[in-house]
Design goal:
Shape: elongated
Oligomer: single chain
Largest sheet: 7 strands, mixed
Number of helices: 10
Number of strands: 11
Structural class: alpha/beta
Length: 266
């Protein structure tokens, strides 16, 4: 489904809902500026509502990644200073945009929100800050703590590496066309002391396995990852949503060796 908005076409397949509220744009920039940076990537600039404000930030290297060639042409015509700064590619398939650390921002397409966050996790050693707009439900999942129904894989994996702030919510009428869901802006900053797990691979496997059957106790949901002696521990009486990020990390040290797990799955 497509609809015309001025000189550009809004494409529902790409999850395009363009931000049009100047005040929201200024609030996003203000949140970014609280943590100084030298390199900035905007994901999905669309019609350039936020881009216009980002281009005004002095003394930074700025780039934007946009998959839609029509929007790229529109942006280059509207903002001549963007020449050479737009990467026409899928954010989920692109290489790292800079050498060294960079900040990330955008009104992220809601249909790939989780994938965007997993990409940020892939680049966690370089991402020094992310301020982004997500569907409110996704934003709440990212910031949720143990004991909440919204707490899940995304919550644990993001919070293992980043401190998360729920900054503010955004009304549907701030977009064109207005989405059918509410939106919220969150900020990620690298944890000063990352969680200590046996390995990142083991940690991810444990978290995903535990939440795959979240209604079951950990003893049943993740039985294949632990030996019978370890499974007798009191913590295995809990469900995944009851464990803190730190408890998941600590449990990773008690998992069977990776080779044994792989052999059992074969």
């Amino acid at each position: 489904m497509q609809m015309k908005q001025g000189n550009i076409t809004l494409k529902k397949s790409l999850g395009q809902h363009f931000l049009r509220d100047e005040n929201i744009c200024r609030k996003i920039v203000a949140a970014l500026m609280e943590h100084p940076f030298d390199q900035l990537l905007e994901v999905g600039p669309g019609a350039g509502a936020l881009t216009k404000h980002l281009l005004a930030i002095p003394n930074i290297q700025f780039r934007a990644v946009e998959i839609d060639s029509e929007k790229v042409n529109f942006l280059e015509e509207t903002f001549p200073q963007l020449a050479g700064k737009i990467i026409e590619q899928d954010f989920l398939a692109m290489e790292r945009p800079f050498g060294g650390k960079f900040t990330l921002t955008g009104n992220f397409p809601y249909n790939i929100s989780s994938q965007i966050l997993f990409r940020v996790l892939e680049w966690k050693s370089e991402v020094e800050c992310m301020v982004g707009m997500f569907q409110k439900e996704v934003a709440q999942r990212v910031v949720s703590r143990e004991g909440s129904k919204a707490y899940g894989v995304l919550s644990v994996l993001v919070q293992a590496f980043f401190d998360v702030d729920y900054l503010f919510e955004v009304h549907e009428q701030c977009f064109q066309p207005p989405p059918k869901v509410k939106s919220a802006v969150i900020r990620l900053l690298p944890r000063k002391e990352p969680i200590l797990a046996r390995s990142e691979k083991d940690f991810f496997l444990l978290v995903k396995t535990a939440f795959n059957q979240r209604r079951k106790t950990l003893r049943n949901a993740a039985r294949g990852l632990f030996g019978e002696v370890e499974l007798q521990s009191e913590i295995f009486n809990k469900r995944a949503e009851q464990l803190t990020v730190g408890q998941f990390a600590a449990l990773s040290f008690k998992m069977k060796p990776a080779a044994v797990i792989k052999m059992n799955d074969a």
